[in-house]
Amino acid sequence: MHSPVDRYSVLLPTYNERENLPIIVWLLVKVFTEHHIDFEIIIIDDNSPDGTLEVARRLQKVYGEDRIVLRPRAGKLGLGTAYVHGIKNATGNFVIIMDADMSHHPKFIPEFIAKQKEGDYDIVTGTRYQGNGGVYGWDLRRKLTSRGANVLADVLLNPGVSDLTGSFRLYKKYVLARIIESTVSKGYVFQMEMMIRARQFNFSIAEVPITFVDRVYGESKLGANEIIGYLKGLFTLTLTT
Amino acid sequence: MSRATHIIGLAGTLMGVWLLVLIGWLPLPLSDTVRIKVWPTLPFEFLVALGAYMLGSVGYGLLKFRDCPEAHQELLQEISMAKVDLRQNGVI
After folding, report:
1. Domain A8-240: CATH superfamily, name plus number
2. pTM of the full structure
3. Membrane topology for this entry (chain B) (predicted)?
């Protein structure tokens, strides 16, 4: 099913993920091994004060330097530059981006890969809003905000993707590099802009339903600031793309 | 062309046609009732329809929103399996 040349680089940007990182890596290794997929996990830690990097070093000892690659940075420099930094060091021809907090489960990666091969898609994106997709751990307010944000983006930008703010995606490496070059937004809008840019460049996008389990350890935040940031970003995109 | 110019262009064109018909420069074969009673209210009806569509989409999305407790259960089990293994390997 997999051609022997395909290698998948998982980018894991981390900041204070000492609890989550070992488990997500364990799950990734398990899934890749069971499905005989060639992989590497690139951990980009932004100098977490909780010692995430030390845990990452121990993981590297257990799973090997060809599987676990450490690319730490001096401080919190943002998601976009973390991806750029990660791609520079990626040896795979495909790149998978996901959250390190276990809200994205590696079990969907083989489905992403199968979907990608089905139509030689440039991008496969996980969607919480179709098929068997779903979210665990959100209250009504959070669901309402999420649905509202998507409908608004749909009307203004007409992106053709059902889960715009999702961040569990598989890219051909050169495609991700090309998109990231032209993406300027931050925060929630960042993932959305990546999809809009992808469409501008006529890259093909497929969707796979995923379940999303909100952080088991630690807290996920959605306050007024995030919502205002999202709205600002959405209108900026409407004006500029 | 940005999305904004696209949207404004489309809205402008529609408004222009609507206005031309309204002031009688563009003769459409409309009955008097339609021309006098319905045509002047079209823009507002469009806004109401758009709002209803958006609210409806949000509501439909909420109804279809799937909680996935089984995914949570599965994850918790896997976390305990992972922890046992990681402890043996001296990672945690």
Report:
1. Spore Coat Polysaccharide Biosynthesis Protein SpsA; Chain A (3.90.550.10)
2. 0.90
3. Multi-pass membrane protein
